[in-house]
Amino acid sequence: MRSRAVLAFGLGLVLLLTGCGDPARSPAQAAGPSPAPSAPPKPKPTASPRPTRTTPPKPRLRPMPTTLPAGLRRSTGDRAVALTFDDGPDPRWTPKVLDQLRAARVTATFCLIGKQAQRYPALVARIAREGHQLCNHSWRHDMNLGRRPLAEIRADLVRTDRAIKAAVPNARIPYYRQPGGRWTPEVVAVARQLGMRSLHWSVDPQDWAHPTAETIIERVESAVRPGAIVLLHDGGGDRRQTLAACQRLIPDLKRRYGISRLR
Ligand SMILES: [Zn+2]
C-alpha cells in the first residue's frame, strides 16, 4: 500500500514536471472544454482483445541543477574561434552550410542527432569527408536526457554513436553536446565514460528562434572573443537566416580570429 502511494506520487511528479517543461501546453489548454459532443466514438473492432497490462510508471527525472556542471568545454584553447552546427544532418540545410565552409576553406564541428544521422548517412559521410569534427547530440534531441537514469543516458548516446559510425565506419566522435545545454553532472560523466568530452559554447545568437540574419550577425559580433565557441544550427527548422548570416560571419571571423574545428 505504502509503495503504491509512493509510485502514485512519483508519477504525479513526472506529469507535473513534463507539463512545466512544455511551454506549448498550457494548463488552460489541457483542462479546456472539449469540442461539442457529436456522435459517440465507435470502438474500433479488434481481432483479439489486448492483454490487460499496466505499464510501469517511468522513473522520476532528477531535478535540473541550477548551475552548469564542471567539465564543459567552452573555448577553443587558442585564438581561433570554432563554429558548431547543431541538430542536423538536414537534407535541405546541411549541404548549403558545407558548401559555405568549403568555399571559405574552413572547418567546423557538427553536433548530430542520432536519428537524423541514421536517416541521412550520406550527409554524415560528407561532413566527415570534408574534414569537420563530429559531435554526438543525442538520439532524438531529448532536452531531459541528463535527468534520466544513467542506463538510459548511456543507451541513448551509444545508439547515436552507432548511427554515426554506420555512416562513417571509423568515425571519431570526441564530443557530446547536451540538447538545450541542459547539462547535468550525470550526462557529463556518461559521455566521459564513452570517450566524449562535453561541448558547451560561449556565443549563442539563438538562431533557432528565427531572428533575422542581421540580428544573428550582431549577436555573434558583440559576444565573440578570441577562442569563442559559436553555437549555430543547420537543422531543426528553416535555416535561411543562419545561412545568410554565415555568408558574412564566416569571412569576418576568419579574418579577425581564424576559424578552426575543435580538436
Ligand atoms: Zn540541439
Order of helices and strands: HHEEHEHHEHEHEHEH
Bound molecule kinds, no repeats: zinc ion
Shape: globular
Distance between the termini: 55 Å
Mean pLDDT: 86
Query: How much is the radius of gyration in Å?
Result: 22 Å
Helix content: 40-55%
Secondary-structure blueprint:
Elements: H1 2-21, H2 27-31, E1 72-73, E2 82-88, H3 94-104, E3 109-112, H4 114-119, H5 121-129, E4 133-136, H6 150-167, E5 175-176, H7 185-193, E6 197-199, H8 213-223, E7 229-233, H9 240-256
Helix pairs in contact: 3-9, 5-6, 6-7, 8-9
Short description:
This protein has 263 residues and is α/β, with parallel strands linked by helices. 40% of the residues lie in helices and 10% in strands. Zinc ion binds next to strand 2.
Molecular structure report:
- Helix 5 (121-129) crosses helix 6, helix 6 (150-167) crosses helix 7 (185-193) and helix 8 runs parallel beside helix 9.
- Helix 7 links the parallel strand 5 and strand 6 (197-199).
- This protein has a domain at 73-256: TIM Barrel, CATH 3.20.20.
- It has helices at 2-21, 27-31, 94-104, 114-119, 121-129, 150-167, 185-193, 213-223, 240-256, and strands at residues 72-73, 82-88, 109-112, 133-136, 175-176, 197-199, 229-233.
- It has 263 residues and is an alpha/beta fold.
- It has a 7-stranded parallel beta sheet.
- The radius of gyration is 22 Å and the shape is globular.
- It binds zinc ion.
- Zinc ion (ZN) binds at residues 86-87, 137, 141, 179.
